[in-house]
Amino acid sequence: MGRENAVCTDALTVPPEQTEPAPRRFLGAYRRLKDVPGFWRLASIGMASKLPSGMVGLSLLLLVARDHTYGTAGLAVSALAVGQGVTAPLRGRLVDRLAPCPVLLGFLTAYLMASALLVLVVSGGGSVGAIFALAAAMGASAPPVGVMMRSVWHRSMSSSSNAGLLATAMALDSSMMGAALISGPVLASWLSLSVSPVAPFAVVGLLTAASVGLLINSPGPPSRSAPPTQSARFGHWLGPLTSAPLRRLLASDALFVMAVTAVDVVLPIYAREYHAAGFTGLYLGILSIGSVLGSLALGAVPTLLSHDRKVSVLLCVFAAGAGALTFASGLSPLAVLLACPLAGLVIGCTFAALRTTGGDLAPEERITEAMSWLSSLDMVGGALGAALFAHIAADQGSRVALLLVPAAALLAAAIGWNTRGRQP
Fold it and tell me: Which of 141, 332, 369, 390 has the most beta carbons within 10 angstroms of its beta carbon?
């Protein structure tokens, strides 16, 4: 949902007769990806690093809500998100500039300590301020394994023998994120309500530690095979943001996430307005499933994602799907349900394209930081989308709010129109 980094490999030239032809079978790209050395290890790390992000927010909400109001619990979740979003670029910069092993282990230690202290403070009836501070500390110390996995995929796909597989790898990574965002809350709620409110934190801690351990012991993780370059250590303080195309891509990313979040927020309000509250879960579930299936399908035909303006093209397709959803909202709640797969079809693909292009635009020594900026802009866009569109839906009605979603997507497409990544 995973939310990404490419290294230019023009040093090697493969003779035409040695170049593997593009796969012609529908699943040929996935078969080739599966044959890449270390694929299953990378896929396992990717999934293990994404599942905690789908669990921790709801786990924190249910834990704090035992002894406090849901408003207080919601603010604790917000503190977690703020801590994570504000510090993401800094954590990415540390990974790029220093050896990743001590950086990841340091963050892991701080994250586990903050998690344990938060559980103890909540269980012991600690102050609300302490809960907020520890929640923010959890977010700020989360090991950036998910972000680094995008760098790993880019570097793994950068050799000439793996040419054409980057789009497939990013589509797979995005579909894993979507699957984690579906299964994570389910697992977290089951553990919290059926076992113990503390149980999800134990699972999140174990998964986080496992993903860090697997990554630092993988052959050739990002920035481990070679020491950081002089430019990585002492480059411009803006880092990858010195690139104007990357800044445009970040703006497009924020607007896109704002539009996606708007759909997630407005559909439950629409269902309530039109006396179809029972459809709320189905709306969001089908959107997510459509996103995962769309990512997997486009990953099977990576040539469809090789267009030099692929981000803007996908944003336009999403705008069309959101427009269909808006049109269906004027018919009936059932029509909206049928339109949800169209609206969700390219969400995951667009996330994958944004990460792929972001990696292409970032200097080799700044890839993790660039991916971290994308993650931060995801959070900014999500927060703006939730606040702005919830207000519009409450004030003007859900159909008016839905009508503005395609406009936001088209604006994102226009901003990113001339933003191109590496050409195949």
Answer: 369
Name residue 240's amino acid: P
Q: What is the pTM for the complete model shown? A: 0.74
Closest CA to 78 of 64, 89, 90, 91: 64
- Judged against a pLDDT cut of 70, whether residue 125 lies above it is answered with yes
Closest alpha carbon to 94 in 204, 223, 181, 5: 223
For 98, the 3-state DSSP assignment is: coil
CA distance 273 to 277: 8
Long-range contact pairs involving 233-242 (C-beta distance under 8 Å, separation at least 24): 233/97, 235/363, 235/365, 235/366, 239/89, 239/93, 239/366, 239/369, 239/370, 240/361, 240/362, 240/363, 240/366, 240/369, 240/370, 240/373, 241/373
For the chain, state the CA radius of gyration.
21
- Statement: residue 299 has pLDDT above 80: no
Phi-psi label, residue 164: left if phi above 0, alpha if psi -120 to 50, beta otherwise: left
pLDDT, one tens digit per residue, over 314-337 is: 899 999 999 999 999 889 999 988
In angstroms, the CA 366 to CA 377 distance is: 17
For residue 4, the model assigns a pLDDT of: 37
